[in-house]
Amino acid sequence: MLLRWLINAVAIFFLPYLVSGIRVDGFLAALVAALILGIVNAVIRPIFLFLTLPINFLTLGLFTFVINAFMLSMVAGLVQGFYLRNFWSALVGSLFLSLISSFLTFIVRH
């Protein structure tokens, strides 16, 4: 679990290099953002997924990207040193965050 937190923090730290509109003021801010994002994804995200199940079904799961962007925006509102310019930055950032996190997890496990 600690390794997963560190992997997500590294992924958040490198997001500004890939997505304009995202700013991380240091690795400590990335660590805090990864911690809060993990908590938000464990507690709040399942509720949102359940409540938006009909629209998620109609969009064949693509609405999940919107929910992920909303979760990332929520974290940016809570964590000092982690900023998102707008919703589109959050949407693209959440996609890259998933890709980077998956890639780093794959590298660590193999």
Account of the protein in words:
By secondary structure, the protein is mostly helical. The chain has one domain (about 1-10, about 20-110). It contains 6 helices and 2 strands; from the N terminus they run αβααααβα. A two-stranded antiparallel ribbon has the order 1-2. The chain is globular and about 40 Å long.
Strand order, main sheet: write it out: 1-2
Helix content: over 70%
Unreliable residue runs? none
State the major sheet: 2 strands, antiparallel
Share of residues in strands: 5-15%
Number of strands: 2
N-C termini distance? 17 Å
Shape: globular
- What's the number of helices? 6
Average predicted local confidence, pLDDT: 94
C-alpha-based Rg, rounded: 14 Å
What's the order of the H and E elements? HEHHHHEH
Structural class: mainly alpha
Number of domains: 1
